[in-house]
Design a protein that fits this description.
- By secondary structure, this protein is mainly alpha-helical.
- It has one domain.
- The chain is 80% helix and 0% strand.
- The protein is built from 15 helices and no strands.
- It has helices spanning 3-26, 32-53, 65-86, 92-99, 102-113, 121-138, 140-145, 148-169, 172-175, 180-202, 206-209, 214-247, 250-265, 272-289, 291-296.
- It starts with a helix and ends with a helix.
- The mean pLDDT is 88.
Length: 300
């Protein structure tokens, strides 16, 4: 990859790592479902405005709304709701590390739902290392207590599983010939429609009109415009020029960014157990990526 592409990859990791930081700030005042709606609705608005300027409106004949609703549920509504609720009970850095297991879940889901991507010995080792890391992160004491912290961690793992299903399902958009930016706008618009009645039924609109500290509103706007709308555009740009394999590298960097922000600004602690778990999950990701293994093989 070029130096420019590496810079884009680093910027994306900061934006997505920052999403856990912004969410932790906002969820201190806003209920999780309200935060989900605010995130997807503002991001959808921004991308639809860009689409209108480029004359690529979603609201035309032939728009695959059923696919957008399915992708919106799997890639936005379900995982965002689980992560934001989880972050009411666990640190942002912990949530980011658990979210990094998404490629591990993707290996399992791809094996079960496709015939092209089977679990190989190296992927088996990756899964073993990654899920051992999860076991270290959660710890036996948490399982014995069955407290809110444990359920928060399980919620973040559930979000990673949902992202894995979304990754497999989302491949159809390429086959359908839909432009990546349009697909992002479509799923975010569908997500806004999905989460709105759920939010109204469970939380109402009062949290959106109530007084909150300026930092909360700033975090919501940053979460929507920087970590969602702009991050999607950046994501698809890197995907086009560097490919999916290189894009996987961002997964290594997101927990680093999130933990640094959490320690520096939220007073969170990075424990030895978190570091050990993060290293094991990282080892699993390296085995999936495969480049480190290939580099160690002797040249023929």
């Amino acid at each position: 990859m070029s130096l420019h592409t590496w810079g884009l990859l680093l910027l994306l990791s900061v934006l997505w790592g920052g999403s856990f930081f912004f969410a932790k700030v906002a969820v201190s005042e806003l209920p999780p479902l309200v935060l989900v709606f605010g995130r997807v609705a503002l991001a959808a608005l921004a991308l639809n405005v860009l689409g209108a300027f480029s004359r690529k409106s979603l609201f035309r004949r032939g728009t695959p709304w059923s696919a957008y609703f399915a992708m919106g549920a799997l890639n936005n509504v379900i995982p965002f709701s689980l992560i934001f609720w989880g972050q009411t009970h666990i640190a942002s850095g912990m949530a980011a590390i658990l979210n990094a297991t998404t490629p591990l879940f993707t290996v399992v889901v791809a094996h079960l739902l496709s015939t092209e991507e089977r679990i190989t010995p190296s992927k088996t080792a990756a899964l073993a290392a990654g899920f051992l890391g999860v076991t270290v992160l959660i710890g036996p004491a948490a399982v014995q207590r069955l407290d809110a912290g444990l359920w928060g961690q399980i919620a973040c793992l559930g979000a990673a599983l949902s992202y894995a299903f979304a990754g497999i399902y989302g491949r159809r958009f390429t086959a359908m010939g839909i432009a990546p930016a349009e697909a992002a706008a479509g799923q975010l618009t569908a997500s806004s429609m999905l989460i709105l009645p759920i939010m109204l039924a469970l939380d109402g609109t009062r949290p959106l009109v109530a007084w909150h500290p300026p930092a909360v509103w700033a975090a919501l706007v940053a979460l929507a415009l920087l970590s969602t709308a702009f991050a999607y555009v950046l994501y698809f740009r890197i995907l086009a020029v560097a490919g999916a394999t290189n894009l996987l590298l961002v997964t290594f960097l997101i927990p680093v960014t999130s933990n640094l922000l959490g320690v520096a600004f939220l007073g969170e602690e990075l424990t030895f157990r978190q570091i050990a778990g993060m290293l094991l999950v990282g080892a699993g990701l390296m085995l999936i990526d495969g480049r480190a293994v290939r580099a160690l093989r002797p040249a023929k």
